[in-house]
Amino acid sequence: MTTQITPLIAGNWKMNGISASLGEVRRLAEMLATGEAPRCTIAICPPATLLSQLNAIAAPSGIVIGGQDCHPMPSGAHTGDISAHMLADAGAQCVIVGHSERRARYGETDDLVRGKAVAAMTAGLIPIICVGETEAERQSGRAEEVVSSQLANSVPEQIGQLGIVVAYEPVWAIGTGVTPTSDDIAQMHGTIRRLLTERYGETGARTRILYGGSMKPANAREILAIENVNGGLIGGASLLANDFHAIISAV
Ligand code: 13P
Question: I need a labelling partner for 112 at 20 to 30 A (CA). Which of 33, 52, 129, 130 fits?
Fold first, then answer.
């Protein structure tokens, strides 16, 4: 982990969680209050229906809340969509954009993801921009090429004052229990760091690069110790306070 960057441990609840699930956040807040001070920023991205309620519980513990997606426009006739401005109004400070589940199932292109990232920054949110190769792309030796191209086209030309976060999530590692080797993670994060630094200078050198895909209490310590891994984007293991707290403690 690059020491001068405060790591970010972000939970992506995906389409999980109803008001009964808020008990887990209360438990997490209690664990944080009684244990050692965390050495990272903590974020939870719940379904939009829970943002306000979760914020009321999480904010006193310093836990940041975020959205899981946003529309590129600030408002308008877009039934079912949520704008970055609305997320900010509900208390969000960040938003995930370009998650592979949205890229694959809703055909989200790099151009659209970039538009969402711009909208997020305009609304005062930090975009967590996801990139990652599929299993077939890795097997054909194209992982770096795919991720480099996603990065070049999904990350906006201008990065605002608040900065951005990049999340490297190999698609084949999401929800499968399988993770890349530490060497493979180090190599991809090194490439992302180089590309960000070439393009954005000091801002790129300071940008958090998260790893995501089957991060669990059992492997978090090892993954978080890899150079240029500045935190994690955690799905399944963020739903239970015990597991999420164990990952926070692994920083
Ligand atoms: P899992 O941690 O469940 O593999 O999900 C990772 C992810 O997609 C986070 O955005």
Answer: 52
Ligand 1 in contact with 174 (CB < 6 A)?
A: yes
Of 181, 151, 179, 152, which is closest to residue 166 (Cα–Cα)?
A: 151
Domain range holding 39?
8-211
The atom number, within ligand 1, closest to the CA of 237 reads 2
The answer to whether residue 239 is domain-embedded is no
Overall domain count for the chain: 1
Is 78 a known active-site residue?
Answer: no
Q: Which atom of ligand 1 is nearest to the CA of 176?
A: 4
- pLDDT tens by residue, 139-192: 999 999 999 999 999 999 999 889 999 999 999 999 999 999 999 999 999 999
Decide if 245 is catalytic.
no
Q: pLDDT at residue 3 above 50?
A: no
Question: Rounded mean pLDDT of the chain?
Answer: 97
Indicate whether 226 belongs to any domain.
no
pLDDT at 4: 84
pLDDT at residue 119, rounded to an integer: 98
CATH number of the domain encompassing residue 115:
3.20.20.70
Percentage of the residues of the chain whose pLDDT score is greater than 90: 96
Return the closest-CA partner of residue 123 out of 82, 168, 177, 80.
82
Inter-residue contact 165 to 129 (CB < 8 Å): yes
- Helix spans in 70-161 (H): 84-89, 100-105, 110-122, 135-139, 143-154
| C-beta 169 within 6 A of ligand 1 | yes
Is the pLDDT at 35 greater than 90? The verdict is: no
From 71, 85, 99, 189, the catalytic residue: 99
> Could you tell which of 13, 14, 128, 239 is best to mutate to test the pocket of ligand 1, judged by most ligand atoms within 8 Å of the CB?
14
